Backbone:
């Protein structure tokens, strides 16, 4: 990657905007964005640098235009084309919603994103089924993507999001690749994630093994799932969730951390607090994100809750094959957190893969070249389950 380019740092003066834009760019291989459309949005945002509402206004303006094109195509019977446009519109609405604080405005934009994603998936991916995963008297929102042409019981990957992503993204960038290998995928918005947080008000928890057990019980209730070949993976904040799950829920066949999480979640939240108080543009997360996900009233309260999100004394309980994938230039989670997880994991069947700038995928969760990360994980699962 050229050190002079703007692929990674689209907005040199704002890591917050650059990181969020790079996440959107990373969806290009899966048809969920168009780079030309992102470039148009970027040019308008550069002209509005510093405007509080610029981010959501420009992303939602593009989303609305693309959605209208999708509606017209659908009305005219051009359903495949409509599906493509709906998926892109959904992704742009979701990207625009990112920096809106929890409010009716935020939830209204999320509902627009969900409407477009659903309309797109129905037309482009009929093998995606919307499902509810029973969870403590409620239900977690999820998609079950079946691998086309597969009969009988098949391996099934349980996939959890990060702090500020959603199942609509992960079912595409992971589910499509897994389906090519004959595996099903359960892409789930767990507590504190996506639809389960926004529309069902289910906040995160430190003991995520409860969620992992609920997901495992759901997939094994299906006649199309091989109960002996169910790995779990999580990306970004999911790099805490997935290892925590397999430390306690021993029925999973393997675990992948698509990006390790901070070894000390407390220190990470404290850093967000300090950075956002000085210059919010230097933080990938907005000041409201962690408290909202945790169900805390503010960052101080979230700090106290974060003390319980700790793999110390937990990682040693991991017995199944474990893969940790990390980027050497990860600016959200330092590389030493990946090494600490690797060293502490109890299993002898463990792999630490570090992507370098030379080979690509050196940023957080390989968002600068997500395909290399997904391919590596899929190949590793195939070899280790």
Residues:
């Amino acid at each position: 990657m050229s050190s002079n380019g703007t692929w990674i740092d689209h907005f040199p003066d704002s890591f917050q905007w650059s990181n969020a834009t790079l996440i959107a760019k990373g969806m290009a291989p899966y048809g969920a964005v168009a780079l030309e459309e992102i470039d148009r949005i970027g040019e308008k945002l550069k002209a509005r640098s510093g405007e509080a509402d610029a981010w959501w206004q420009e992303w939602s303006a593009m989303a609305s235009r693309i959605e209208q094109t999708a509606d017209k195509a659908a009305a005219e019977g051009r359903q495949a084309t409509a599906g493509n446009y709906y998926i892109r519109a959904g992704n742009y609405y979701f990207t625009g919603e990112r920096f809106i604080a929890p409010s009716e405005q935020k939830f209204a934009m999320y509902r627009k994103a969900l409407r477009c994603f659903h309309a797109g998936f129905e037309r482009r991916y009929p093998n995606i089924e919307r499902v509810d995963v029973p969870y403590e008297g409620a239900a977690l929102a999820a998609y079950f993507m079946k691998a086309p042409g597969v009969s009988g019981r098949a391996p099934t990957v349980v996939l959890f999001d990060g702090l500020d992503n959603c199942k609509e993204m992960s079912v595409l960038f992971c589910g499509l690749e897994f389906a090519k290998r004959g595996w099903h995928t359960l892409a789930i918005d767990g507590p504190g994630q996506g639809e389960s947080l926004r529309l069902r008000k289910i906040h995160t928890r430190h003991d995520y093994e409860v969620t992992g057990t609920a997901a495992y019980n759901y997939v094994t209730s299906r006649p199309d799932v091989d109960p002996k070949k169910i790995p779990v993976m999580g990306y970004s904040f999911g790099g805490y969730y997935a290892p925590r799950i397999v430390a306690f829920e021993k029925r999973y066949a393997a675990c992948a951390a698509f990006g390790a999480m901070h070894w000390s979640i407390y220190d990470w939240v404290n850093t967000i607090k300090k950075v956002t108080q000085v210059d919010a543009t230097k933080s990938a997360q907005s000041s409201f994100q962690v408290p909202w996900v945790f169900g805390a009233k503010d960052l101080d309260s979230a700090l106290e809750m974060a003390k319980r999100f700790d793999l110390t004394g937990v990682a040693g309980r991991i017995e199944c094959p474990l893969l940790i994938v990390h980027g050497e230039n990860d600016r959200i989670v330092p590389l030493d957190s990946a090494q600490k997880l690797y060293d502490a994991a109890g299993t002898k069947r463990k792999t630490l893969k570090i992507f370098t700038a030379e080979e690509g995928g050196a940023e957080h969760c390989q968002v600068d070249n997500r395909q290399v990360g997904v391919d590596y994980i899929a190949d590793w699962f195939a070899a280790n389950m």
Q: What stands out?
A: The chain has two domains: 14-124, 127-263+311-385.
